[in-house]
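Journal club side-thread
Mid-discussion, someone asked how the predicted structure for our own chain would compare to the paper's figures. Pasting it here so we can look after the session.
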Amino acid sequence: MGREEEVVKARIKKIEELRKKGINPYPNRFDKDSNAIDLQEKYKKLKNDGKSKDKTKIAGRLIIIRDLGKIAFASLQDGSGKIQILLQEKETPDNVFDFFKKYIDAGDFIGVEGTIMRTKRGELSVVVKSLELLSKSILPLPEKWHGLVNEEERLRKRYLDIIINPEVKELFVKKYKFWKAIRDFLINNGFIEVETPVLENTTGGADAKPFVTHHNSFDIDVYLRISMGELWQKRLMVAGFEKTFELGRQFRNEGMSSEHLQDYSQMEFYWAYVNYEDGMRLVEEMYKYVAKEVLGTLKFKSRGFEIDFGKPWKKIDYVSEIKKQTGIDFFKATSKDMEKKLKELKVEFEPGLEKERLIDLLWKHCRKSIAGPAFLINLPVEVSPLAKRTEKDERLVERFIVLFAGSELGNGYSELNDPIDQENRFKKQAELREKGDEEAQMKDDEFVEALKYGMPPTCGFGTSERLFSFLVDKPIRECQIFPLMKPIKKEAEKQEEKKEENKKDLEN
């Protein structure tokens, strides 16, 4: 029997003994009146070896226990932080001390009532007068430095990762502040929050491969949305709304990387009677506000770049930047020219891609060297099927992309409100889909019909939790509390697979 099995067996035995004594190891509440951080703040002026007659009731999980015989120390962790509890002969009733020693283990949730003191070494402590077991742990907690060293295990057992690594919990507090800051900023600027369908008959608002599911009541296949209600929010502009935003989950059935996931949170806003230049000004202001709220500064490091949101945001021309870095002029180069250049740059691509996909791959290579912050502008219409054309050059659109740390971290444009132009672009996208491009946008006749009733000039913009991952400089998968993981195969299934593999090897 291994050590963990022995621990589990011993703890289950304790549970059985407690039940026989009429003690419920899993009661339904505890009336606490304080938390760790408030006590630390309230008694920060209490001197070493000082005592207070004040009583307090706190609850949390025991992380570490040190039993020294006549005195025992334990670290109690609640939702706010940690505080030490102390049990001592003549201070803690004998029956409470005995109960603690016999039935309480690291990992258990307990509630205690006691007085406040600060030890000679300066540790604020609760001297336990009474104690209640709130939840008996059966499995032992992993050791801080040796327990969860495998990244896969950390993400799969995120609850343990958070328990033993306080910085992980702080990451998700920051993420809460991130989305709150975006929501607060938009509401304070007159936007209202809306909700649009997650299940759609046709996907729209992005170039992405959707997830497909079946709607039993209608007996039809539907798609999980790939944008945050772009075509729906633009319908709201048709309806007369002037400032809307949505914040929620969206889904793209594509590959994973340090920057991309299939199931993630996104925000999109739509603002009537303005264009992309107004959008850029608002977005720059919003990003500065969010960085201040989340990081407390406009300067930070991300992906090896030094970023300063406080310095002037440059505007980078899409076609000119690609030409400067690669020598390729999008408007003059052929597909063969681009394929040749991509091979020279060692960029992987599938043969037979359309011209717009090839230029997009060239751009993605070029952006890796751009520190930013900057706005990418003057994108070609081929890569922007929902953006309004520029008046100075029909080949370009009024679109902007936020760039920093070598990546795209926000996308907006003057929305196309010409229904004839939109219909023609949808047809072009449909042709791409027929040729096998699963990321090309679907033709949405109902949306075109809505545009025919008239949509005012509008700027739309969207950004996702990828922005947060860049602000805190972590892979995006680590920035999700519970990322999707492959199910763990049972040992029997693994052994069976090995047998099949061995059998095939012998046959070959």
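Post-session note: The mean pLDDT is 91.
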